[in-house]
Specification:
The chain has about 270 residues and is mainly alpha-helical. It is built from nine helices and no strands.
Length: about 270
Amino acid sequence: MNLDFNSYVTWLIFVSLFCLILERIVPWRKQKLIRPQLFQDIIWLAFNGYYLAVVFAPLFTYTGNFVGDIFLQLGLPKPENFNLINAQPFWVQFIVLLVVQDFIEWSVHNGLHRIPILWEFHKVHHSIHTMDWIGNFRFHWMEVLIYKPAKYIPVAILGFNYETALAVAVFATLVGHLNHSNVPFDYGPLKYFFNSPKMHIWHHDTELHFKGGQNFGIVLSVWDWLFKTSYMPQGQPEKIGFEGDNKFPDNILLRAIYPLSKIATKKS
């Protein structure tokens, strides 16, 4: 079998296997490998890790062309034609893309918790009751339609080559997997820069320690420390989830449509 290391899916498989093995070697909590809703999370991983991008590819292409036409009407080049940083060395592109993208994602994630309509979609991710690496990909498909447009213009204007974009995507997936993993890491002094399992577990605490929650960082924790949304005591929460999650559906199909039906009910 020939492995395509220019493919995100190949790296997703390797990162997932790495975190799965790591949890077996240095577990933080006593958890069984085969646990409730594991099969459902495998479906979330496959769909959100690959098929979601395929399904929404035409929409993202159309959106990119639409935004490009607006820029042209304003007498500006299309966003992807600016290429402000494309000629820079790989490491410069990597750092800039990671920081810019992560701050946007931190802001969006914050909004998912504070804006009631968006919270209905984000509940899917917080329906996790057993925290392990695969929970990183349990999220509602609608979240992609929020994150992607928010990142498109600034990322497109800066301009990054494919290798940089792939490297940042793989690194973000690795950190995201680790943040949800059942491993006892906090990276010591680097905890003020990088999110970690010991920090992110408190994001999933049923109890909200600030308005909307705490620890919204995706890859970097620095935004939470800067904007005073960090919460990282010793130990672990008594319970993870969200208030009222006992009324949230367990079925994956119902979870996919529940937020839409909930919003429609509120509007009517």
